[in-house]
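Entry: Disulfide bond formation protein DsbD
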Amino acid sequence: MKYLASLLLFLIPLLQLQAQYFDDGSGDSQMADPITWEASVEKENDSVFTLIFTANLEDGWHLYSQKEADIDIAPIATTFSYNSEGNFELIGETTEPEIEPIYDKVFEADITYFEDEAVFTQKIKVPGESKPEIVAEIYFSVCDDEKCLPPETERFTISLDGNEVTEGFTDLEISEKDKELTEALNIEVSGMEKFAPEEEEGNNFLNIFLLGFIGGLIALLTPCVFPMIPLTVSFFTKGAKDRKKGLVNAILYGFFIFIIYLLLSLPFHLLDSVNPEILNNISTNVTLNIIFFIIFIIFAFSFFGYYEITLPSSWSNKMDDKASSVGGFVGIFFMALTLALVSFSCTGPILGSLLGGSLTSDGGAMQLSMGMGGFGLALALPFALFALFPNWLNSLPKSGGWLNTVKVTLGFIELGLAFKFLSNADLVEHWGLLKREIFLGIWILVGLGLMAYLFGFIRFPHDGPKKRISKARFGVGVITFLFVIYLIPGLTNTSAANLKLLSGFPPPLFYSIYDKGTEAPLGLEAYKVWDKGLEAAREQNKPIILDFTGWACVNCRKMEEQVWSNPEVFDVLNDDYILISLYVDDRKDLPEDEQFNYLKPKGGIKPIQTIGDKWATFQTLNFKNNSQPFYVLLDNDVNLLNEPVGYTPNESEYLSWLKEGLAKFQETARK
């Protein structure tokens, strides 16, 4: 299980890096902080110094040794690193307290860890009269008997000239310029106090649960899972001493499958509790989107049959041995865990799609749990239902080549989805690689490839002998053909290019190889800077619609292409409002004179380096909201006209909201 641990350790720092750019300090989350570090320096002679680092831990918490534990899933070892602007030499390694390994309940093994207090020392040698300033960084994680917190980095700057120690990232300071630019972000919106931000997560949770359930049903039709249904159900119903016991065991088996997949989302709740915005904004992280793109490509070719992605066989063997030796409820749990491990080559890509889809939405870890719960429930239901009604087993189709057809079809779907993640990165960074027409062209090629496979023109490694095409396979091929036909107008520079059924998935209409006149949706004129938009609103005496959006925001594209494209809505936006669109995920660097360090309301410093940094902070500071899309109607004196809204797919409702704000503006202007 070292592979899984390595994967988690790889993802966590990326997620933490993401948090640096979106945490404005205004959230209400509470973060456990059970450890404090202190540093000091002692001079032995003119050239030898000892750096001393002391960790103080709250009761019940552990800090782990620098030595990595030799077990499958191991805690994160404490690591020290040193650098300086001058010359120095480390004498030996960083020492730690000598202590015998202790049994750790979390990792169920004897592990070296420290409680209450731990002192680490590092001797260094400096040449001649040199007095370098040394930066020491400590990478560590702490656990109690129930959980582990994500790894953190503690930083100390140690000046040997005077033996002074400074804690934290001291290279970030608040200057007068920082204070001025921070003050400029606060536009003092009048009327915001009347409207508390609303949470509209219920529907999102239900949608992701249903998507997860559908994903689980699809996974049932793969070669790794489908043949297991009759075998497992027969094992429980025939192997038990009586029918009632067999039914209970089979239902319990299904329940454990559901629980196992639900438990897979728990580590992300730990990240979410540390900072709720970590998972909500993954869609804007270029690195993660490229990683997802690569992973989906790998998954696709695995489904095509060119190789198998499997977890180490030792994992499933261990679980199988546990199931056989333990028996009872615990044994059934390990049987369910064995199924989850053995079927990973088929379920892994689907779970990857679910992970990418839910974490790039606004529901965070809870949304992921809903999706994983739906997936687990779909996998579990057949084992319970067929145990209750064993005669239904006779109606199941026999395993055969159709299972591989399902798997290859899923491979083409994974291939298409992969380019969505690459498109997200392309939009955020403005690379111009996947303009809308190029993206749709790739989807058309993927669709043609799937058609060619379904109609028997191309074959893959695990396909059986060539047979007559079944009605189901032919039907899916026809549906694919119709989908390709639907995509083709998207390649043109006409009104037919607005593919409303796919709103939010391809790049926006204005991100095109054709000259669209403006860089705003639907050819509207949109200001990308608050000050310029406000100035235009005052010159033209019009109200403002402030559009907080994102290049990688799916619901933003849906609003633009499905709601804003309504003729009445479009006319009101075009004729009666000044549109200011602020992209909170824009990774383009601000000019150097506009970059600054933002002092968060609750302490801490956030560097404002990109356009997205600025507008994300602008939104949370003034409107106490960090979701997109988010629409605000203001008069040109920055008074709120009505209640801000988010994603509003109902065209008439959105139009009424626009007209309400316009009427309020006109009423105020007459006074």
